[in-house]
Amino acid sequence: MRKVWVAVGAAVGLGLSFVMLLVVGVYIVAGNLANGVGAGGVGLAKGAVPAAYRTLVQRWGNLCSAIDPALLAAQLYQESGWDPNIVSRADARGIAQFIPGTWATHGIDGNGDGKRDIWDPNDAIPSAASYDCELAKYVKDVPGDTSDNMLAAYNAGAYRVIKAGGVPPIRETQNYVKVIRTLAKSFAAPVTRVDPSRQAAAAITYAQNKLGTPYLWGGNGTADQGGRFDCSGLTKASYDSVGVSLPRVANDQYNAGPHPGREELLPGDLVFFSDDLTNSRAIRHVGIYVGGGYMIDAPRSGAVIRFDPVDTPDYFGATRVTADGAKALPTSV
User: Do the bridges between strand 294-297 and strand 270-273 make them parallel or antiparallel, or are there none, so unpaired?
Assistant: First the structure.
């Protein structure tokens, strides 16, 4: 649920032709401008890393050439969802999910207080970066991409990478490398325009067909719920309709792709809202952008799915959903 900052009269009366004109017109321009990710240093996308850890990730993510801040952020998010107190079934601990035996040999005193604390992100995040860089040294002479080989070594061990002459033919390891590389795109600040989404127009059409439907907290649009939705239920269903499976919760949906700037929004982008503009984990509302400064959203109890303006004080940012980005998200964070 989010605050309503501006009342939009007769918004539901905007027809499909309005939306599709925006989609077609903006996509023609975007198709001419989008040219992938450019070269240069890797920064972090706005708010993607919680403010408490952003400086650590930015600093230690540049520890060696095999990693960058976005890749380090992707690993930490995949491992713990930024929870410094989590313990896995395998007894992996803390924000970087070190097993005690690995921590004993690879944990470092990142904040210089004389202690190596597996639970302290000020030690654990630097240790994760240091461990990555150590692995990169082990596999530096292996053919192929050093970062891919480093990630494979993290998952399967350096010996298997060296023996295979690259990422070994192990499904779990190959998937781990792909997942982290894909997630890293959602943590990196884009340096050029982000490619348009192929599924966007159909996702908008689905949402448009739900205009006027009453809001339901926790609603997924099922028959037993009278076809009603809440905000993230609507965006999930819109992309489910085109074969892209998003997480159920808005703050997890934020990591389903790269993040275009406000001036680069295209129809189909998910737009997010929060009372804390420094932390994507605090996101509490999402809509699907249709162009012209408007989105379709399920705003709150007592309201209906409708057009609402994007430019409000609680606007957090946007995500251009990709199928690979959605697949890369952990099942629970």
Answer: unpaired
